[in-house]
Amino acid sequence: MLLYIIGSSHVGMAQRTNIxxxxxxxxxxxxxxxxxxxxxxxxxxxxxxxxxxxxxxRTIVKALKIPNSFQFDFDSLKSITIQRSPDNNFRxxxxxxxxxxxxxxxxxxIQINTTNSLKLLPLLDFTSxxxxxxxxxxxxxxxxxxxxxxxxxxxxxxxxxxxxxxxWKGNTAKSTQKVIEVLYFRDGKAFFGMPLFDGNKTYQDxxxxxxxxxxxxxxxxxxxxxENRIVFDHLAPPDIEMKGDFAxxxxxxxxxxxxxxxxxxxxxxxxxxxxxxxxxxxxYIDPKNPQKEIINKVR
Length: 299
Fold this sequence. Notes:
15 strands; alpha+beta; globular; single chain; disordered N terminus; disordered C terminus; 5-stranded mixed sheet; 4 helices
């Protein structure tokens, strides 16, 4: 808590530590959001989780209405995923509320980078009303809810026409999903979904890619900047007779991917992942010629 000393010979702590007054106020809101977020995640009563969530939404909006709030990082909020676009044009706030039946509801907002007035696009989860989520173009008012952890700007002809998002989507008591989403802006709205995917009949011309797998499994879905590609675990059922029952799927120790080529995503089958060089590699002894490795290290 910040204490202010009253008197003509003293100045407030905000001045003495060069903290802007608006940052002090946002920081206070951040403390409130943090406490409410703890309740959203940990309270055993579903009604209390949602009650805390609604209060948290209102508090986030109040905090973001403060001028220059876009520059405040909210770095103490751990259960809310905040991702700033690499070009600094916007940032995404996304989080979830767990229902007692093991399903999830998602919440979020897109804050556009402005100096004074707040430009905020709410993200309204419409998952249950989307009949064919891989084939449908959506907007911020009808959103395939997810918690995004990566924003990849796509540069084409010197512009950024859209962004690729990687997200986690808790699904049911039995399965989890991850998603490759496409975001772009038009006429003051955010749109989700674009048929950018080539080279595989499963993914060809889909508006978004959705992976579903067993809830107890862990799936890799990441972006490699150096290779300019998205890589992911290949998912498979434990038995051919279980094909199509995605709640049983899991990684099969092989990897696929998408390469960004001229603004589109081209499928890569059975790719090899390599770790970057590390100092610990020098400690490796080749089992085919251990003596040679030992001699080299002695030298």
